[in-house]
Design brief:
The protein is mostly beta strands. It has one helix and five strands, in the order ββαβββ. It has a single domain, classed as Ubiquitin-like (UB roll) (Roll), CATH 3.10.20.
Length: about 80
């Protein structure tokens, strides 16, 4: 197995200890990778894998770069 990069944006950085990038193991669904990284999947509005929008059930491949966009709340 290889690795991929998670790039949390906005408030999602709080779940990544303020980091701009987290290395994760490839070969698993994005949902599992998020959970294993401590990022609640329900707070991710969009995930772009190599700049292409992907579903959270997509399997992450070696070398991919995943940009995570947070849900924006208001009220």
């Amino acid at each position: 197995m290889g690795t991929a990069e998670l790039h949390p944006k906005g408030m999602l950085k709080n779940y990544a200890e303020g980091k701009n990038m987290i290395l994760v193991e490839s070969g698993f669904s994005l949902r599992k990778v998020l959970l294993d990284s401590g990022i609640p999947p329900e707070l991710v509005a969009m995930a772009f894998v190599n700049e292409i929008p992907k579903d959270k059930d997509e399997i992450i491949n070696d070398g991919e770069i995943i940009d995570l966009v947070a849900v924006i709340g208001g009220g």
